[in-house]
Design brief:
Oligomer: heterotrimer
Strand order of the largest sheet of chain B: 1-2
Order of helices and strands of chain A: HHHHHHHH
Strand content of chain A: under 5%
CATH class of the largest domain in chain A: Mainly Alpha
CATH topology of the largest domain in chain A: Multiheme cytochrome fold
Radius of gyration of chain B: 23 Å
Number of helices of chain A: 8
Bound molecules: calcium ion
Structural class of chain A: mainly alpha
Strand content of chain B: 5-15%
CATH superfamily of the largest domain in chain A: Di-heme elbow motif domain
Helix content of chain A: 55-70%
Number of strands of chain B: 8
Largest interface: B-C, 34 and 34 residues
Distance between the termini of chain B: 82 Å
Order of helices and strands of chain B: HHHEEHHHHHHHHHHHEEHEEHHHEEHHHH
Shape of chain A: globular
Number of domains of chain A: 2
Largest sheet of chain A: none
Number of strands of chain A: 0
CATH architecture of the largest domain in chain A: Orthogonal Bundle
Number of helices of chain B: 22
């Protein structure tokens, strides 16, 4: 398994033409496996914190972070794949990693995908940009417990 | 079991009755939205926290000016020294206004702006134009306007139609004095990092005035609906109800606005002349919106409704708790979604903030009382108006700041550092006034 | 390159050399831990923020008492009125201490406690017992002890061994005066919600004294290592170096502790007699730990190291940035891990907090200067010591509070509301002192 993954990821770095494809392939191939994301050590803190979050039995990374319509999913994967892997290769991204606005909207849609019935009353008032009730404004911790960033040491471990 | 709940919840907005702009009776809206209405009605329940609400068994809330006699002395010469009580739930707003002994002095019809579901009456007064109606209202006595209100049908406290557009249920503001006030703010260049829509509007062509219902984001609206009433104002017989935000929202911005104001008759603005000292002073009223604006919550996009009307789960759906009240009665919903600390710890944090503020407030009050004593003494010793001018000016400044925090209802919580800063300035001015009063002989005018 | 980075992360602690309790030279430790050492060395770089650090091109940091002449006047009669400069990086601590013109007055050997890697010298002085050594050190002159330090080998500023146990690299505290101070705090009943291990210890059998190295959690240690030095103290020739926490950490707790202290010779505790007024006053030094303790960050388990030594990623490993400096130079790592706002917004928040504090500080300083003027005047008019007693007492109270915030190095950030409260009290006392000085004739003693 690790062998396969490693080669998939090594493939990613080969060239602009094909890495996007490989990255997308590789992810969809094992897309329900959060380890895949965390294989990239940069994602490690998010994996750790997800494991401690209220959703770790309810949702996987892709459930929240990727769109769920067929086409949108692939576009997002290609786009993110390019950004993440170039970021990783050149180590030139902003730290702590912060979610992009575009991905925030994907995330929001995914909250609704699962929870719409419960929040109908609030979302019916409008979900245009300025009218959105962004769930994360109050439920920031659902996916990752406490804020993670570079990964904070546990409060109480000695 | 998500699936089952989906079915149960599918259509929460079946309307059983139509509601219109003229429907001020919440009961009718309650037929469509029973969950919100049920919680709305609870604002009639008496509640009490250390500093919030009213929970006595008495019919009327406790008298603030008896609990803190310095308040009474500070207001001598003004109706607030007659009767000034703890606030309580929205259900009582009209009744408490009708009953207050401040009504033993003439009050203007504009008082109703924030204590009743008033828009139909404004439209009537203005022949369909509510703004015009509001601008007329100050000329009526409270009694006359109140009578008109009651004659138009049942008179209600703040109601659904005041905050909601009836077709979509979207939030909207209605109060003309607020709209004029927020436009004054937008037209100014005062920084408003907590109201991004104002900044956006300022960058535009400004052909149309800033209007919350068009421009503000939903998050902002969750504060602005409250800012229709929980604000500092002028409301008396000399000019229309005014929200003083033309220079900004900070205590000194508002002070500057009043200082630069003149009444229509050309005289310099003041609220009342202090009975003992003769100083022409200002009165601050519940500047919740203004103080919140200076705090870290506002800057972080946390609105009044987030804390005072948190979502609550009701069966399979989540609704906004329309039992508007102290968040301390509801910490788990009001705070814990954002702050992952125990209820006890959160309560302790608020208490630490409020206790610091309370102690500093009492200290400031003592300083102001000392200053009043000093002016009394100077007067007895024969000080002239000229010789007291500086001391009186200090009183105006000190009292304005002290009152700003005393009248604000969160005991410093909405902006802890800012409140303490304001009180720090107030102490300084009061004591300087005391020095000047002692030194009246040295003041050459 | 994933594979390489993974390997790189496996064993970050390969030791190339052994280090011991006596190795105060950081270069040696740097062979084992080059990443930490590399960043540690950067404390020699000059940096500057609006209120922090030192970034001038001059060899020495700017003179605080020239920038704010009221500081100089407040310290008249004490060495701080001769030379008192901006702080800078850890690399300079020993040099700056050696060079300060405060050394033109006799200073005690205990000064080295916080400016050098001093433990081997303490052990030598105490024949192996560092605590005993520390307790002796105040009897030496600075010059003598400094000479001994240099003779023992190269003298270093704070070094690895001061914060790390050399076998495990765990954090630990070493400074005897700190350990005595924190034990005094633990023995008291002052509330310490931000130090849960003290509460835990208090509930135990208390057979052994509280000791951070045994009892404190890792989060707490990330603050306590700094609290060895960034604290209020007494350090002069009358008694051993003392950290005044026996009544708690708040400004009035520390004041009470000093007020109830007597020197070994039985005289009442004070730091110096003010040259102009004759008041016997206190001097506050850098109470960062004390002020942080009152803030919301401390209560939330956010330690000094979180902001001043944030983790930085170096390949696949994470290391603590040992370039201890202003977090404002490093907002992304220092703040954004917890606060999801843009760097610009975070900087603006800090600036808003610091600006409020700065203005209030300057206002308070003016009040104190006015009080000093008033005492001068009273003295000229012939006021007796008795008649000035109350005014002087007010000066002591006011100056203590003003200095507490002026000497604290975060310009209010570590606990914004608390700082403003303290300044509010200071203004009040200074102005009351002014009133009393004006009224000296009325004071009957
Ligand atoms: Ca007013
Ligand atoms: Ca001291």
């Amino acid at each position: 398994m690790t062998q396969i993954l490693t080669s998939v990821f090594v493939g990613i770095f080969i060239g602009v033409g094909i890495y996007t494809f490989h990255y997308a392939e590789g992810l969809s191939y094992v897309s329900t496996e959060p380890q895949v994301c965390a294989n990239c050590h940069i994602m490690r803190p998010q994996l750790d914190s997800w494991q401690k979050s209220s959703h770790h039995k309810a949702a996987l990374c892709v459930d929240c972070h990727l769109p769920h319509d067929f086409i949108g999913k692939y576009i997002a994967k290609a786009d993110n794949g390019r950004r993440h892997s170039t970021g990783f290769t050149f180590q030139n991204f902003h730290e702590p990693i912060t979610i992009t606005e575009k991905d925030s909207r994907i995330l929001q849609k995914n909250c609704l995908r699962c929870h719409e019935p419960m929040v109908q009353d609030l979302v019916m008032i409008g979900q245009t940009d300025s009218n959105t009730t962004y769930c994360v404004r109050c439920h920031e911790g659902v996916g990752h417990g406490e804020r993670v960033g570079l990964g904070r040491m546990d409060k109480n471990d000695k | 079991n998500i699936h089952e709940k989906k079915i149960e919840a599918i259509n929460p907005y079946v309307r059983l009755v139509e509601v219109t702009e003229d429907d001020t009776d919440p009961e009718k809206w309650g037929i469509n939205w029973p969950r919100e209405y049920d919680s709305y009605k609870k604002t009639a329940i008496a509640t009490k926290t250390r500093f919030g609400g009213h929970g006595g068994s008495e019919a009327m809330p406790a008298e603030k000016i008896e609990r803190d006699p310095w308040l009474k002395r500070m207001f001598l010469g003004y109706a607030f020294s007659i009767d000034y009580r703890d606030r309580r739930g929205h259900a009582y707003m009209l009744e408490d206004q009708e009953k207050t002994l401040r009504q033993t002095k003439p009050q203007s019809g504009s008082c109703l702006h924030c204590h009743a579901s008033i828009m139909p009456l404004y439209r009537k007064l203005g022949n369909g134009d509510a703004t015009k109606g509001m601008e007329e209202s100050y000329k009526y006595s409270y009694q006359d306007l109140s009578k008109m209100l009651h004659e138009m049908g049942k008179a209600f406290p703040v109601s659904c139609v005041d905050c909601h557009e009836h077709k979509t249920m979207q939030l909207r503001v209605t109060r003309p004095a607020f709209i004029a006030g927020i436009q004054r703010l937008a037209d100014s260049s005062a920084p408003v990092p907590h109201l991004p829509s104002v900044d956006l509007w300022r960058q535009g062509d400004r052909k149309q005035k800033y209007h919350p219902n068009m421009d503000a984001s939903r998050t902002e609206m969750r504060a602005l609906v409250c800012a229709q009433c929980h604000v500092e104002y002028y409301c008396a017989g000399k000019q229309p109800l005014t929200f003083p935000w033309g220079d900004g929202l900070k205590v000194e911005d508002v002070e500057r606005f009043w200082n630069n104001s003149t009444f229509p008759d050309g005289t310099h603005f003041y609220d009342f002349a202090h009975e003992e000292s003769g100083a022409k002073v200002l009165k601050a009223q519940h500047p919740e919106f203004e103080l919140w604006s200076q705090g870290i919550h506002a800057r972080s996009g946390v609105a009044c409704a987030d804390c005072h009307m948190p979502y609550m789960r009701d069966g399979a759906t989540k609704v906004s708790d329309h039992w508007v009240r102290s968040p301390l009665l509801n910490i788990s919903r009001a705070c814990q979604t954002c702050h992952k600390f125990s209820e006890q710890e959160i309560a302790a944090r608020v208490d630490a903030i409020q206790e610091r503020n309370y102690q500093l407030l009492q200290r400031t009050a003592r300083a102001l009382m000392d200053q009043l004593d000093a002016i009394e003494k100077a007067k007895k010793e024969g000080a002239s108006d000229n010789q007291l001018e500086k001391a009186r000016d200090f009183q105006r400044k000190a009292q304005w700041r002290l009152d700003f925090i005393a009248a604000e209802n969160s005991m410093g919580f909405h902006a802890p550092q800012e409140s303490a800063r304001i009180l720090g300035e107030a102490v300084d001015y009061a004591r300087q006034g005391q020095v000047d009063a002692f030194n009246w002989r040295g003041v050459d005018n």
